[in-house]
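Hi everyone, sorry if this is the wrong subforum. Our group has a chain we'd like a structural model of before ordering constructs, and none of us has done structure prediction before. Sequence below.
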Amino acid sequence: MAETFNAFADFNMEGHNVLITGGAQNIGAGIAKTLSGAGANVMIADLQGDKAKQTAAEIENATGNRCLGMGCDVTKAEDIDALVKATVEAFGGISTLVNNVGWGPRHDDPTKITEEELVNAYKLNTVSAYRMSMACLPHLKEAENGSITNSGSFSSVVPAYDILGYGTAKAALNQMMISLAHMLAQKVRVNTVLIGTVMTEGYADAGLDEATQERLKHPDNLIGRTGKPQDIANAMLWLTSPAAGWVSGQIVKVHGGGSVVRLFGE
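Answer:
Right subforum, don't worry. Here is the predicted structure as tokens:
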């Protein structure tokens, strides 16, 4: 009897060693769980070290695959180096980097954003992804199906003056990662998921009031709903897996087909 064709075989992540930043909760935790469920070893890095370890233990229990967590401030070079070293020691290498960490507050008055706020947004959302990518690069080059995949933001390509610092930094991330994809051609694949409105606790943490959150629950997109962490995780699984072996230098929009996610003007 002929072997049954398995259309999902190329989505299998067995043998892959994943490092994901900002993976302790929300979208990051969803990505970590999905990649672990697909067979990968996963290291979760997060500013909240204890939360990262807790989430990792829960994922390992759910999937049966190795999942570890540790604290890391991605704006500190020494933390990045320690994270990469620990991941390599635990798994024997790194094949898959997911630059998921990112955050930015809502500006009550966008005309009064300080220089420090803009620089800090760039450090967290853009520079950290570059530093992490370069720290992992020697290991990614040695891996089969080496890849870097980034959590981008729809706010980087539409007017979003209420989160101007964050959106601007994420726009820089788009350009930087496309350049890296060309620089690393035939060595490491580089892609970005442009994420639309996914309702998580992060919106409240960023300073969006309940009325604003309620408006965001009814976005102007083709699907007619906000996203779920699993929507993003599914896209990440495709882009990190061998199924996307012919995909690099791409910004993939996962936002419900949205054209306008924020229109707060009077």
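For your construct planning: Confidence is low (pLDDT under 50) at residues 261-266. The beta strands are 17-21, 41-46, 67-71, 96-99, 147-153, 189-195, 250-254.
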